[in-house]
Amino acid sequence: MLTYTFEERGEKPYYQYLYEVLKEDIEEGRLKEGEHLPSKRAFAKQLGLSVMTIASAYEQLLVEGYIYAVEKKGYYVAAVQPYLTEPLQEDPAVKIFIEGDDASHEETKANWRMDFASNHVDRERFPMSTWSHLMRAVLSGQSKDVLLPSPPQGVYELRQAIADHLYHFRGMRILPEQIVIGAGTEYLYHLLIQLLGRDHVYGIENPGYQKLAKIYAHNGVDYRYVDLDAHGLSMESLRKQKVEIIHTSPTHHFPTGIAMPISRRQKLLAWAAEKEGRYIIEDDYDCEFRFGGLPIPTLQSIDGAGRVIYLNTFSKSLTPSIRISYMVLPRTLVGKFQENLGFYACTVSNFEQYTLAAFLQQGYFEKHINRMRNFYKNHRNQVIAKLKESRLWQMASIYEEDAGLHFLLHIDTQKEDSVIKDQLQQRGIRLRGMSDYTYDGSQVIPHTFIINYTAIDPQDLPEVLEEIYQVCIN
């Protein structure tokens, strides 16, 4: 009989503690692959908890791929391999810097009546008064530091604040010396190409972030496309393309919304560890906006071989205009970075770095994210409500709406996606399909469109949804 006590729960919610102990038992092999878990009702009665508590714990395990559901039969333990995480310790090979040492027309068109392709965040929600207060405090208290040259990897205070944030929010145990600050992720990609070398084969997910192809081509890098399947990055395609360095978004893939299950994550990590020179670039671009359950752990946090390079940005969580991004290097690459690329100046001003450090350290970022998560959740609900009230809902369904700032809209129509998009464009409505994110325009998932809802006013939706309906049926 499967049973647990909650004496060590502390202040954690019951569902979170139950999720954690079940996850640990699966990872450690105490719960075997294929083992049938108790039903939610029976487990609740046995543990003296509510059915909702059991359901929440099971749902989180399901989304992360630790268990799977069989209709009318229940939940079963998935295939999960044990792994070792890299221990956190000072590496003598890592030098610690002492502070003070040295688009196309369609893309830019501004008069769309409705733009479902825009992923701009709500600028009105930026905490301007708090940010202004911290800027003044930095000027008065750290005026000399602001005028000093920034270390190549960024000021120590910001890197420490990011390391603390990643530990508490993403479960990542890293050192500030592993972090590199840069003005936007595109700049960091250029650094990574120089760090890892141009003689490797780089992989891009298909469908996926197609701007990477332009960056790689501009740098003279050999790149290939790796297909996805129902669980994210296809291992078969990865091996077939003979890729050595792969860019992926395992927590919330764009545009499919897939969350890579733990079994696939472990296979990907095992692939990287098989051969020297293989690396995974983990893009965690909108991890803050998960509307149900706990945050899904990063690849970096379960990487025991030091093969994951973690990338994130504050563009989605704060505002694109700040343009502060960062990457977390494996400790084995830190010395190489400092030796080969340490001559580069940090591309973010000290003024902004110290301000963001204070914003993180004083808890303002966490409060802001909580507010924005609630705001976007309500905004998403309003958009979906308008959709369900429209005639388009008769022939539509939505997917992957529980995380990130977009969801997928599938329309049951015989009309070609390109025709739908062209006819809507003539009406001032911009809509992108899954084919817009494949390298050859192929319809891997036909009649499925990406709805970025952050820039949409729900009050304007009824008329626009009716026009989409008319275009799809005529």
Automatic annotation (TrEMBL):
GO terms for molecular function: transaminase activity. Gene3D superfamilies: Type I PLP-dependent aspartate aminotransferase-like (Major domain), Winged helix-like DNA-binding domain superfamily/Winged helix DNA-binding domain. Residues 12-80 form the HTH gntR-type domain. InterPro entries: Aminotransferase_I/II_large, HTH_trans_reg/aminotransferase, PyrdxlP-dep_Trfase, PyrdxlP-dep_Trfase_major, Tscrpt_reg_HTH_GntR, WH-like_DNA-bd_sf, WH_DNA-bd_sf. Keywords: Aminotransferase, DNA-binding, Pyridoxal phosphate, Transcription, Transcription regulation, Transferase. It comes from the Bacteria. The keyword DNA-binding applies. In the C-terminal section; belongs to the class-I pyridoxal-phosphate-dependent aminotransferase family. PANTHER family: HTH-TYPE TRANSCRIPTIONAL REGULATORY PROTEIN GABR. This is PLP-dependent aminotransferase family protein. The lineage of its organism: Bacteria, Bacillati, Bacillota, Clostridia, Lachnospirales.
